[in-house]
Write a structure and sequence with these properties.
- The structure is a single chain.
- The protein has about 250 residues and is α/β, with parallel strands linked by helices.
- About 30% of the residues lie in helices and about 20% in strands.
- A seven-stranded mixed beta sheet has the order 6-5-4-1-3-2-9, with helices on both faces. Strands 7-8 form a two-stranded antiparallel sheet.
- Strand 2 and strand 3 form a beta hairpin.
- The longest helix is centred in the last third of the chain and has 12 residues.
- The structure holds guanosine-5'-triphosphate (GTP) and magnesium ion (MG).
- The site of magnesium ion (MG) has 4 residues, from helix 1.
Length: about 250
Amino acid sequence: MAAPATASARRMKVTILGEGRVGKTSLLQRFAKGTFDEDSKSSISAAMLDLCVISPVNGITKVGLKIWDTAGQEKFRCIAPMYYKDADAVILVYNVTDAKSFSELQFWLDEVREKARENCIVAVAGNQADRVEEEKVSLAEATEFANKNGALFFLTSAKEGMNVNDLFHEVIARKYPEFKSTAPPAELRNVVAGATTMAPVPQSAQQTAVMERAKKPAVEAFDMEGFHRGSVRLKREAFQQNQKKPGCC
Ligand SMILES: Nc1nc2c(ncn2[C@@H]2O[C@H](COP(=O)(O)OP(=O)(O)OP(=O)(O)O)[C@@H](O)[C@H]2O)c(=O)[nH]1
Ligand SMILES: [Mg+2]
């Protein structure tokens, strides 16, 4: 009998790909930390962030994310497959003011189709959407590309925070639809002798949990220290501490 889906069972590896300077690191920084750096330096190799993401809908369902931020410079392309070949999802980023960064998406998509898992979720992010006056890639051609390839599509601005949470949350929900469900997650149902009874937790307890969650940021257990120095592993203390808490991913 399959074990009930628990928070600790919900894990995803997500890899961010795209040309240099399109805003991959900035999108991750915005999502994880809620900040933006005008002087963001080019990434070297790749960096990984462990996050525990909480559902914005029910405030309880948690998903453990390992997000790989790859370097877009040409010289790092050959190592990129290492980071997406076993990914659950990839986010292909282009810069709306740079037509070449958009046309390069076909290269990244072909690579992913060839080397990643067959069921790898693909999302396209048209970043730097705050630079409306300089736009070189139309919304129509970008959505056509995404639709044709069965990909999610978001116009984002890491600078202004536009659609950044939605992008990551939709990617998660493609794998774990319960992430965006208002029903109580499996770990809050009564589990008796290996069988899951469908009785939800008492409403008051559930509401309390939601209210407590609402006071906290949507992302827990991140640590950006060393991130821009291209470190592959970041400190995990906060994440591990959270793991000790019951029900945390
Ligand atoms: N206006 C604007 N600038 C952005 C946005 N996102 C990133 N930038 C800027 O674009 C530049 C490159 O951003 P990064 O996040 O470092 O780009 P990257 O894709 O990680 O680049 P590589 O690591 O070289 O692959 C930086 O100067 C950022 O401040 C955005 O949404 N709007
Ligand atoms: Mg970068």
